[in-house]
């Protein structure tokens, strides 16, 4: 069983930066593939960024490419999402997700483990 705990969300102004963190606990011997998703109430949960088990491969949604960076520290069992040049459209609940296997799936149904979410609000 993998347990995920997000932190770092908050209220920022447009153009600001923010870093989200996800701590992995439970089964940590085998490193899962990790991702960040986000969701606005009433809308589908959407893929933001993903990183493979070794940290050597990362994928990003088009909307955040060049502004967000996903990274992981396997020694500390953490995954981070650095967000720069935030837009009001980035406002959402951000979720950390994990799955076994090395593929970084864009669909939320492919991910087995989820955190409780952390809110990010970007004001204009």
- The share of residues in helices is under 10%
Could you state the order of secondary-structure elements as H and E? EEEEEEEEEEE
Sheet/helix structural class: mainly beta
Number of helices: 0
Give the averaged pLDDT, no decimals: 96
Amino-to-carboxy terminus distance: 40 Å
Cα gyration radius (Å): 13 Å
Main beta sheet strand tally, sense and closure: 7 strands, mixed
How many beta-strand segments? 11
| Shape label | globular
Segments where pLDDT lies below 50 for 5+ residues? none
Q: Note the beta-strand portion.
A: over 45%
Structure in words:
The structure is a single chain. This protein is mostly beta strands and 124 residues long. Helix content is 0%, strand content 51%. It contains no helices and 11 strands. It has strands at residues 2-7, 10-13, 18-26, 33-39, 46-51, 58-60, 68-73, 78-83, 92-99, 113-114, 118-123. β4 (33-39) and β5 (46-51) form a beta hairpin. The radius of gyration is 13 Å and the shape is globular.
Summary tags:
124 residues, mainly beta
């Amino acid at each position: 069983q993998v347990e995920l705990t997000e932190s770092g969300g908050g209220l920022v102004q447009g153009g600001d930066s923010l870093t989200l963190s996800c701590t992995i606990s439970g089964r940590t011997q085998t490193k899962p593939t990790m991702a960040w998703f986000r969701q606005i109430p009433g809308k589908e949960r959407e893929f933001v960024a993903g990183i493979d088990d070794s940290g050597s491969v990362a994928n990003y949604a088009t909307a955040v490419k060049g502004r967000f960076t996903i990274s992981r520290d396997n020694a500390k069992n953490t995954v981070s999402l650095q967000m720069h040049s935030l837009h009001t459209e980035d406002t959402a609940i951000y979720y950390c997700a994990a799955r076994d296997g090395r593929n970084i799936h864009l669909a939320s149904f492919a991910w087995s483990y989820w955190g409780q979410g952390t809110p990010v609000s970007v004001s204009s």
